[in-house]
Amino acid sequence: MFNQQLYPATDRILGLSQEEIGRLSGLSRQNTNRALRDLADAKLIAVEYGAIQILDLGALRRFAHVGD
């Protein structure tokens, strides 16, 4: 959604609703909510109204590559 190297001043807030994230990922709203809640519990993201804030980009990247 953003590239920190290309846009270092970019805030780490993605203006996407949970429904939009679900559509983009092919998940139901319920499964999207569960996945986002798990990431928030791990302190990787913060879920806000209509947005997701990235709290730990490095850890989120490592999480995304587990099992590669």
Question: Rg from C-alpha positions?
Answer: 12 Å
Order of helices and strands: EHHEEH
Estimate the strand proportion. 5-15%
The chain-level mean pLDDT equals: 86
Structural domain tally: 1
Helix content, binned percent:
40-55%
| C-alpha geometry | globular
CATH overall fold name: Arc Repressor Mutant, subunit A
Low-confidence stretches: none
CATH class: Mainly Alpha
CATH superfamily: Winged helix-like DNA-binding domain superfamily/Winged helix DNA-binding domain
Assign the CATH architecture.
Orthogonal Bundle
Instruction: Trace the largest sheet across and list its strands.
Output: 1-3-2
- Let me know the number of strands: 3
Give the helix tally. 3
Based on secondary structure, the structural category is alpha+beta
**What does the largest sheet look like?**
3 strands, antiparallel
Distance between the termini: 21 Å
